[in-house]
């Protein structure tokens, strides 16, 4: 193999690798570190606000109507049964096609 072919292959694969590294989270973190940006700084007020929002959401879920939760569970069970039925029908059609129609 001549040197120009070797250089072309090296640049092609090396360039592709560097491009993928540049768009990856690791590449972005390296770029931020090189530029001196520190994204790991956490604002305490934002953190406290987020905790407060999460607590309110948990309280709302705990205060949900038990009848509504039971209705949702029934709906979920019915949907699960329908999916199981549809899977069995699809499996029967696929098996019948493999066996030549079963006649």
3D structure, described in words:
- The chain has 103 residues and is mainly α.
- It is built from four helices and no strands.
- It has two domains: 1-41, no CATH class; 44-103.
- The termini are far apart.
Give the secondary structure arrangement, pairings included.
Layout: H1 3-23, H2 25-35, H3 44-62, H4 66-99
Helix pairs in contact: 1-2
Largest sheet data: none
Uncertain runs? none
Distance between the termini: 62 Å
- Count the E strands: 0
> Which of globular, elongated, flat, extended, rod-shaped describes the shape?
flat
Feature tags:
2 domains, flat, mainly alpha, single chain, 4 helices, 103 residues
